[in-house]
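Appendix B.2, paired examples.
Example (i):
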Amino acid sequence: MNRMFVESGFVSLNKFGEQLCGDKVETINTDDDFIIVLADGLGSGVKANILSTLTSKIIGTMMASGLPIEECVSTIAQTLPVCQTRGVAYSTFTILQIRRGNEAYLVQFDNPNVIFLRNGHATEYEMNQKIICGKKIYETHIDCELGDMFILMSDGVVHAGIERTLNYGWQLPEITEFAVGNYEPDMSAHTMASRIGEACKGLYMDKPGDDTTVAVLRIRKRQLVNLIIGPPVDPEDDETVMQLFFSKEGKRIVCGGTTSNVVSRYLDKPIKTELNYEDPSIPPIGHIEGVDLVTEGVLTLGKVLEIAEGFSNNSDFYTQFRDKKDGASLIAQMLFEDATDINFFVGRAKNAAHQNPNMPLNFSLKLKLIEELSRRLEEMGKTIKVMYF
């Protein structure tokens, strides 16, 4: 397993009064490269959305095929319709390609300059100008290191607050200072994007004057998290499943009372349950020596799924779970923030309580819950493996 992992996340704000965002972020993950393209379509609304979508799709697909940037830009110029008002045929864009040799290839055209953080500090980088189809394109090559963070943005970010809270918008030096001040070594790409996006929303006083997008890419170590919920159908398989679960590297989460008892017997360690409710809607957590987190089962995971739905919504800045200590928030921190790879160990033994027709559907069907949570995690870029017993 490659110990380096490329993590990305982004948030977008639509221009006030518009149904569609004129910015588009496209990510492509191949065996050799990770590519992220942020395109900002000219204008706003439907036309801008179409231009940015086509631009990002075309560039992303061509870059992933190994074609040079000259061909990508030329193809866009020849393919997209020409804007009659402005006389140009494509949106502005930023491309960041992380090659498996850990080299970053950055291409920028008319978007605000990418902010590059190394060890939490703003770091300058060389930009080489190239003229393609009459446009000034800037290329940069950087040898990546663990912890490097790249912050891409559309011009809605630097326009934030114009004629409202700031005279000249949010200038790049101030955005950089904000990013440095909010940087944490263990923060996810999505969390950084959310913090900048939330600041833009505030500067616009909740009425963005332009489509606004922040996309963040972070180079980090791989981190495996293992989560087990439910005992196996055959109790005689308890020992085998426990051996497999504890043979995996990484952090361990145990969900459910019955599962906790099986783990307790296997480790010969007692379960210590907390009596205080951090959140009245979420059962308290427990503790077993040798396990990173012990929680209740489907009710808690159902709440984790609710958090995931907000977290993966690119217009939602929900990251409050980072500061909470209830079972669902702690699981969310480990799965959304800490993990790059996740193993789910799912026991298929039926729990009579979960068959109650009065219980909410997303809580009563454990397997459906895991399936939906896995899908959400894959949307976040996590590598997921689900094993049933």
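Example (ii):
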Amino acid sequence: MKKLYAIALLGLMVLGLAATASAADIKASGKWQIEANMQNADFMDKGASTSEDKTFNIEQRVRTAFQFIANENLKGVLDLQIGAANWGTGALGIGAGRSASLTATGAASAGNGNIMLRKGYVDFKWPGTKVNFLVGFQTVSLPAAFGGGSAILDDQVAAALVSTPITDNISLLAGYARPYDTNSSVSTTAGNLSGSGTSGDVVFAAVPLNFKGVNVTPFAAYASLGSKLGAPGLVGLVAGNSTSGEGARAYFGGVAATVTMLDNFKFMGDFNYGKATFNSLSTPNLGSTTRSGWMADIAVDYTGLKMMTPSAFFVYSSGEKGNSTEHAGSNRMPSLGNPQNWAVGSFFFGDRNFINGFPGSAGYVQRVMGFWTAGVSLKDIKLIDKMTHTAHLLYVKGTNDKNSINEDMGNNINLANNMNYGGFLTTKDSLWEVDFNTKYMIYDELAVNLDLGYINANFDKDLWGASSKTAAADYQNYGSNNAYSARLGVAYSF
């Protein structure tokens, strides 16, 4: 009898779900990835305290998104993620961005296997108009023509956006975002704060100009970050004489442009500028806490070949001047959060095809800022049915003065996140990178990816060995080792 009751209850639940679902059309999409990787990527042979950095991991990440469509003017979007984590690091080896704890209670005790929200927002048009609103937790990225995403802001954040056409060729996009708030009801950590000054707020606007063969989008953004926000929200803004207890304000501006009016050529270019000023001086006699800098890129694709798309690019970002009388400030472009998608090549600056790119100590534009690079790519090489290849060759050199690694004013935030060996490049440091990546489509929705990368590094061992860094002796004796990466995985996209 109990079994019959259970079956009846289950049937009622299914009918209830069906009735609920009938109010909206539901579309599912996602990307499920499993990959094995082996790499040596810290540019160290061996160290006094660590063995040679050769790792082998198998990682898994499951992303699934749902659109709940009421009509052509209204829908809700829910995007969930389980992982990424290495096999063997917990239940099913799949984590949700939070480590399990044996002593914590409440939300902090949750561990591997939980579901993480990537996006949850409402997308609607104002009745009778073309004005579109996106309200909720979503991806916000400032305009970028080259690199795969913005180098200033490109992340999942809580935001409200509005966009509308002004003419047939001109549109307007504006928005407000709150990427950070340490006064969080879902956090049970000791760092949870209350009161004013715990949040970070961003307002931004862009004006896309679309004409035949030309797209130009100027943009601007302003950020205000409270004094109780803490270090995580300030990593991309810090200068030598700044601390996490001050709060900051930041200004950004730039333009992204794409030109396709010439047959068989696609030109892309960006210019970004940012300036961040902390609200008070931690040590007034050391000078400014301002960080300001710029980044520019130009690239061209030749689209006249059927079997591949050759591409050439050049990127330059301002670096530290290394003047001890001025270095309380910083000459690198600030950024908000950790931009997720900007990359050239597919190794040193990150690889968005796979789950995790380069280790956090290096790679990713936020930490590497202060470099120039030139390179060529052969994209979408088609020699065999269902198989494509991409090859990259690039040279990278630092634009940060060689003396700047010893002029961080003892600031722990700056030291830990912005001046790491192998990631922070001085004018004495350079590298060559070569990548060869292959994708084979087993089905239209299922791909096997094999990415191979090699970096020939030339980091100045004498310079880093004489620095004040904790591992300076290891840099002197074991540094400037080359790096390699080999990654094999399957990706189911639907």
